[in-house]
Specification:
- This protein is 81% helix and 0% strand.
- With 332 residues, it is mainly alpha-helical.
- It is built from 13 helices and no strands.
Length: 332
């Protein structure tokens, strides 16, 4: 495990603790209690449905696979990314492995993961742009137009950076191949060349690309309903457009701070900064951030446990199959 991610997550946890102490642990707890179990359950159910739809978006790139395979793979991917924050790439690897074990050829699974992540990122950029345009429409106090322009420039830089990463991203494919299992690269017969062909085949199906992109964009917009519902339960409702602005910019900040595992500390600061511009107190802003982290654990932990059970069963079957039969010694 690399030292830098550990140091960053430790710093993030320290920042979270400092924010809670500064604004009052009691006030933050009261804000969480105001949302209540019913609000938390509603947020969790909405997010579960969104993960399933994002799985459908991935499945649009795999027309020959059964629909449930990509949905399961998406749950595993998100669980790996959120529950195991020190290994963000691990979430993508786990998701790819999940669909591969369910019958999708490993090369096609890896290629579809790359395309799906790309389309999700493009959808996020469109979501951030929509949020920034709506912010100009609202003319929210406390957020200068210069910040909007800076946000647009930042989104453009992220797009360029993502393209550059993709151009140099074949080394990540080799890493995925090694983790997927010994001999995977040989079985695909061409390694990077096979992956390139799989990518081209996916991009040739423009109908699947458009559907996947549309579903991702719709999921980004619908994701704002989680905070909107939480605030409604807490008795501090905001217009959906305002919540969409907050959420789009929070996710933009999270993306910009990708080096910090799970954006620990960064997300909390972003909610305080952006929520304050729309009248949310810092205690409610922190409560929203903690609510979303609890939501991720509530969904991710059972998925990871199920995934471990499946992997453990598979490993046990392999060991049992390789174990030599014990000879039966009879009595003379």
């Amino acid at each position: 495990m690399k030292l830098l991610p550990v140091l960053l997550i430790a710093a993030g946890i320290a920042a979270m603790a400092a924010l809670v102490l500064h604004f009052g642990a009691g006030a933050v707890a009261a804000a969480l209690l105001a949302v209540g179990l019913a609000g938390f359950a509603a947020v969790t159910l909405i997010h579960t449905a969104l993960i399933a739809v994002m799985g459908v978006a991935w499945g649009a790139l795999l027309p020959d696979a059964k629909p449930w395979i990509a949905i399961w793979g998406r749950f595993v991917r998100d669980a790996g990314s959120e529950v195991l924050p020190l290994s963000q790439v691990g979430g993508y690897v786990l998701g790819t492995r999940a669909v591969a074990l369910a019958g999708v050829p490993a090369t096609k699974g890896a290629a579809s993961t790359i395309v799906d992540v790309t389309l999700e990122f493009v959808g996020q950029l469109a979501y951030v742009a929509l949020g920034l345009v709506w912010l100009l429409h609202l003319r929210a106090e406390g957020i200068a137009p210069q910040m909007v322009v800076l946000g647009l420039v930042g989104a453009s830089c992220l797009a360029v950076a993502f393209i550059v990463v993709q151009r140099r991203g074949m080394r990540y494919v080799d890493r995925i191949a090694r983790i997927l299992g010994q001999g995977w690269a040989e079985r695909t017969a061409a390694g990077a060349a096979a992956l390139h062909q799989a990518l081209e085949a996916i991009y040739r199906r423009q109908g699947g690309i458009r559907l996947s992109l549309l579903l991702h964009f719709a999921c980004w917009i619908a994701s704002a309903s989680e905070v909107w519902v939480a605030l409604w339960f807490a008795g501090q409702p905001l217009p959906f457009g305002s919540v969409m602005v907050i959420e789009s910019l929070v996710y933009a900040i999270r993306t910009a701070a990708f080096v910090v595992p799970n954006s620990v500390g960064v997300q909390e600061g972003a909610y305080i900064l952006l929520g304050g511009a729309f009248g949310l107190g810092p205690e409610m802003a922190l409560a929203l951030s903690f609510l979303k982290r609890a939501r991720d654990l509530a969904i991710g932990l059972p998925v990871i446990a199920l995934w471990q059970a499946i992997e453990g069963g598979r490993l046990w079957r392999r060991v049992s199959a390789k174990a030599p039969a014990t000879p039966i010694v009879g009595r003379e």
